[in-house]
């Protein structure tokens, strides 16, 4: 009889432990309540004696296992109000968390114990709110300049936009714009970066411990994501600085279902340097030189269903330096011209499909194309005489250098962990 009581006690205790251990998964996306854009690296956690938590991935997706029953869920992100809700968890649940931006900041006190379980020790995130408050130089904000101030990172040669991460060299860093590799990151011989801050949503700097899918670089990964556009209202901006002028616009294509983002920047050095030559009355020995830089960012996204979303991303950037000398003499029929031009820049495009397969599995299929061009042109022309005595001599030479890459990637994300299959060439 005593043995039977012991066996019954063990069985009942086992069933009780199993009942207490019942867990379900909550998942979904975290978005900006005003624009509908996904928030990257937002925190989702439970309140109580046992705190569980996770962060949203590059597409706003999160997945968290919690015990069944009443659970207090909280979500937070820099520059947004804290979101809290009491949820009765009975089964796997999926929902969207919309965070409201903070209109004004008050003094914040943080009190807590030092955690001994820090996972992302080498990741630094720059949020949209932080980008707004970046210092400007001649009217231009510098994200690369801000990254150079992070621990373990410093500038390369003086006045350049390169990054030296923990003793590496600038060419050992991988720069990604919406998942596409970017080969040249500087304008104006390193004075400015190619990243137009009006078009950027987030920046993640990974200094070490990055996954093998980022192969090909040794020092760091700079993962930059462009804005997706406001799903509910049209917005725009125009700014003029000492170096360049910028115009940006975004808004809904289909209210709540599709949006666009467009941003362009161009300098006007060449306009100023060519004016004196054109205003000059003399026709002999004219010299016109100019330098210009241009950027064009574009993005369109469509929400096909609560589980599917498609993105089209595009970037074009170009630096152009030109020089022209010419002379014209009417007394002695003579005309000669000597010109040269140097152009370099990036072009990239991608299409992405996001799909939520299950409560813990999130997929991102992407086809991307990236190219870097360097073009050099030189030429000479001389015309002399009239009619039957007329002669013409000259030459034209062009030099092209290009590197391009085409890639197909299909990462599957379990929560916020990524496994990737990729081909490229």
Architecture overview:
The chain is 9% helix and 54% strand. By secondary structure, it is mostly beta strands. Strands 19, 20, 21, 22, 23, 24, 25, 26, 27, 28 and 29 form an 11-stranded antiparallel beta sheet that branches. Strands 8-17-18-13-14 form a 5-stranded mixed beta sheet. A 4-stranded antiparallel beta sheet has the order 3-2-5-6, with no helix packed on it. Strand 11 (153-155) and strand 12 form a beta hairpin. It is elongated, with a radius of gyration of 29 Å. The termini are far apart.
Class from secondary-structure proportions: mainly beta
Strand content: over 45%
Dominant shape = elongated
Total strand count, please? 29
User: What's the Cα radius of gyration?
Assistant: 29 Å
The multimeric state of the shown protein is: single chain
- Given the structure, what is the number of helices? 4
Question: N-to-C terminal Cα separation, in Å?
Answer: 75 Å
Largest sheet: 11 strands, antiparallel
**Relative helix content:** under 10%
Mean pLDDT: 79
Uncertain spans, ≥5 residues at pLDDT below 50?
A: 5-20, 115-119, 416-425
Brief account:
This protein is mostly beta strands and 425 residues long. It has helices at residues 2-20, 128-132, 143-147, 269-279, and strands at residues 23-32, 43-47, 53-55, 61-67, 69-76, 83-89, 93-99, 123-126, 136-137, 140-141, 153-155, 163-165, 173-177, 180-181, 186-187, 192-193, 200-206, 220-226, 235-240, 244-254, 258-267, 286-305, 308-329, 334-356, 361-384, 391-409, 412-414, 417-419, 422-424.
